[in-house]
């Protein structure tokens, strides 16, 4: 076989390879987009239509009109925001402390927390919130989302602080810094990339959470995943608006994923490879 | 929290006899998180264990019944059936992403153009909101209007009933789970591939090994620890799978796709049988821990670089 | 500036004793080097002076004040770490002024001190850069600058040159010595490199397995090593050790050759087993000397190093340590396989007790 031909074949093979790799994800989300932009008649057509003649932009406007969607968006924002910020507040120092005390065994608690099904936290905490009279507010969801966010943050931060050299902190100690100054002025600034990773993953997993919401949310305190699910079960299912709503819910996460894929990959593999 | 406490005792032993520690204590950094972890993670564990020994329905008197809930579980056919579904679902949801994810990692480990962007697209399924993608899959599974049956008809197969028939529902759900989680396996294996030394490959090439031989005798043994990590994580996640199953089938048709997690949900939050639900949660929890321990043990044996690779 | 007094200091991790009772007196302004093979406890001792390791027994005093329980920040010391430990997120100027800023020193004073230190080390143009933009030698200088700015009582150096290439190491050696001559700050310096120790120190402390083998001025250790360890550790190439026994007015090697002692026979030692130590540069050609076969000739230009195998010693792994090294300044036409006769200079030879290793 001649060299140029061989090169061409290699390139073609590579292109096919690339296409095969990303097509399951790409085609799915394209189809999702297509569903969300079609009128009912096009969504019911056989054979299915990928690109319709006219776009049903009203699918998007309806979800914001009828369904308190903005309220649910706001709820999601509050729950995810509060749970993530609080997790960073307690989890970053904790990751630092555990890494510095070399208390690796305490990380087992975090591992087991990750292995525990969300539902088994729900039963006792549900009763607790009921007893405290918190049901009907956003507090139960904010608190229970800590089950997701705190372990993520601690886990990632332990790994991060372990890789920052102890020598730097000893230098700061000799330079006259107290332990709080060492944390704030040396350890924390160096760990900034780790905090970004922890923040992103915490936001994504909290935003996506569904199981806590279906039990704890009332009509006014639904988060977006619960709201979208309810559209499916309680209304005459109409595919266009439903797909549009689904896309709106997951769009922030998808954008974040593509924009911060490097951090996400770093965070997930660090946790995974160390986590075994 | 005995684990935390014991590790401090070890640290403290090093400074026996000194009145004052030169090194700062790091406890103040940990305490706030400790409070949170005890409150939202440890307390629920303990409380669940306690509730599982009670006859406890919402709105009724509570009564201590010892192990009665557990005895009831052993004879609960619906539970045993759910256990079977869970094991089948988990096994398939581990194997399929493992094979596909490893293949994808090998592809990603070459010099692809726009590798970062492609990887970003590739991992989208696992980061996307599960409920949202489950809704779209539901539409795609539709026997008459779904795009999947249309695609199959183009190659002369079908139409299938997908999630609407007991014989195909679990396989269909595994398809979704595989689509969603293959990227995670890919990332873990890709991390493993990146850590491999290059010399053995060069040496094998000089020795005349084919690409397949290099994969079979070099790559595969060397990434085995990473594959085991992927198996462990995948097993745990598949056992716990909830969002997709609940959104698409709610365990149906009938109870054909009801897993332990879904059954637990029904018992606790549909029938409000808190005591029995707690017992299911405890058994489920033990199941997950046992499986993890077995897999961890296997992984320890598979680690060729257990010295540093952990 | 200050004196440092180390009294019977011990360090143990659980049952393992790393430092087994060490006492050193360091005068005000002195440059003291702790040297020894890795694992001898020299770095641990330095870190105990810094306050980074707790002291299991004994006392460390700076300026007559016992500092065992004083945290590092209150000891008024500055330390240069092996990997420099520059704060990667701060500019060079901020790195150097960090300690002063922690103490809320006035801005003008900080600026003046940083400028002075930068002047001493030639760091002026680099002050606005970040550590990652600097070369190894420059980072090393910044680490020193950070110490100078503090104007501390004691400088501590923990193997500061081991990450530099050979050429830069020689250059920095000179710079550190110059800096000390200029600032006259009490300095404790740890290294495993005996050449660094010989060239820089006022006083060398040779450590081995957690104890002090000998303390002394560099040439003192070279000329009068207290035991075989110091004799073998100081000097490169290492001293030759020839086992045998003392007899009459000389020394008889194991294979029966006679080596001169120059009348320095220790009293009541006739027939006593001993080890004859002679430095490679203290051999000369002599007709009556030890007959040995040339194994390897290694010319370096300024001198020639030769490995010799005394006749009667078999070739092979086992007897490698009985081979002798000879360093001569003049060029030689000797080739491997030739037999030469060499004799040690008896005035510069040493005798050691083979059991205790101590000098006789």
Automatic annotation (TrEMBL), chain A:
Membrane topology reported for the UniProt record: Multi-pass membrane protein
- Cite the entry's keywords alphabetically: Cell membrane, Membrane, Transmembrane, Transmembrane helix, Transport
Supply the Pfam families for this chain.
BPD_transp_1 (PF00528)
Ranges for the ABC transmembrane type-1 domain?
73-260
Location within or outside the cell: Cell membrane
Chain segments annotated as transmembrane: 12-33, 72-96, 108-132, 138-161, 195-217, 237-259
Instruction: Give the InterPro entries listed for this entry.
Output: BP-dep_ABC_trans_perm (IPR050901), MetI-like (IPR000515), MetI-like_sf (IPR035906)
Query: Keyword Transcription regulation on this protein?
Result: no
Q: Does the entry feature the keyword Transport, yes or no?
A: yes
Gene3D superfamilies, A to Z: MetI-like (1.10.3720.10)
Please report which protein family the annotation says this sequence is part of. Belongs to the binding-protein-dependent transport system permease family.
Annotated protein name in UniProt: Carbohydrate ABC transporter permease
Organism whose genome encodes this protein: Azospirillum endophyticum
From TrEMBL, chain B:
Membrane topology qualifier: Multi-pass membrane protein
Q: Where are the transmembrane segments?
A: 26-47, 87-108, 120-140, 178-196, 217-236, 274-296
The superkingdom listed in its UniProt entry is Bacteria
- Which InterPro entries did the record assign? MetI-like, MetI-like_sf, Sugar_ABC_transporter
As for subcellular location, the record says: Cell membrane
Q: Which UniProt keywords apply?
A: Membrane, Transmembrane, Transmembrane helix, Transport
Q: Main localisation, per the record?
A: membrane
- ABC transmembrane type-1 domain location is 83-295
Similarity remark: Belongs to the binding-protein-dependent transport system permease family.
| Name the UniProt record assigns to this protein | Sugar ABC transporter permease
UniProtKB/TrEMBL annotation, chain C:
SMART domains of this UniProt entry?
A: AAA (SM00382)
Query: Which keywords fit this entry according to its UniProt record?
Result: ATP-binding, Nucleotide-binding, Transport
InterPro entries under this entry?
A: AAA+_ATPase, ABC_transporter-like_ATP-bd, ABC_transporter-like_CS, ABC_transpr_MalK-like, ABC_transpr_MalK/UgpC-like, Mo/tungstate-bd_C_term_dom, NA-bd_OB-fold, OB_MalK-like
Highest taxon above the source species:
Bacteria
Instruction: Kindly list the GO molecular function terms attached to this UniProt entry.
Output: ATP binding
ABC transporter domain residues are 4-234
Do the record's keywords include Hydrolase?
Answer: no
Q: Which SUPFAM superfamilies match?
A: MOP-like (SSF50331), P-loop containing nucleoside triphosphate hydrolases (SSF52540)
The UniProt entry, under PROSITE patterns, shows:
ABC_TRANSPORTER_1, ABC_TRANSPORTER_2
Membership in a protein family? Belongs to the ABC transporter superfamily.
Name this polypeptide is given: Sn-glycerol-3-phosphate ABC transporter ATP-binding protein UgpC
From which source organism is this entry?
A: Azospirillum endophyticum
